Amino acid sequence: METQQETWQNMNGKIFRNPITQLVEEAIIREQANGHRLKVCVGSDSHVYGEVISYATAVVLVREGKGAFTFIRKEKEFQRISIKERMLNEVNKSVEIAYTICALLDAYGVEMEVHADINTDPDFKSNAALRDAMGYILGMGYVFKAKPFAFASSNCADMMV
Fold it and tell me: What does pTM read for this prediction?
C-alpha cells in the first residue's frame, strides 16, 4: 500500500505547515482568551475514484454558541479494499489524530468527540463497520458519534474529500 499525505489546511484551502498539535494549541489559547468555550470533534471521510481512495480527516473546533472552524488533512491511498475496511480506515485516521491531540485537550479542559461516517441504519453498506468502529472509539476512551450526529466526518471531511 502506498500512501500520500498532505499538510493541514482550513476549509478555504489555506495551507498550514505546522503540526496539528501546534495548530490546535494556538487555536485553543486564542479562543479561550476571547472567552469561548470549545469542544473538538474529529472525523474522517473517504471516496473511491477508480484505484484511488481519497481520505479527508477533519479537526473541528466548535465555539459553544459561536460557530466553528476546521483543520483538514487530505490523503490518497492506492489500493482496493472492502467498504468495511475503508470505513475502519476512516475511523483509524480519526483515532490517530484524536490520540495525538488528547493530552493537549485535557491540559486545556477541552472536550473531544470522535465522529464516524457510518450509518446506524442496517440497510446501508457502511453499517457493516458500526460495531467495530464503535468498540474501537469507545475502547480508546473517546466519545463516539455516528450518523446523523457525526458532522465532523459526514459534513466537514466530506466536503473536502
Answer: 0.92
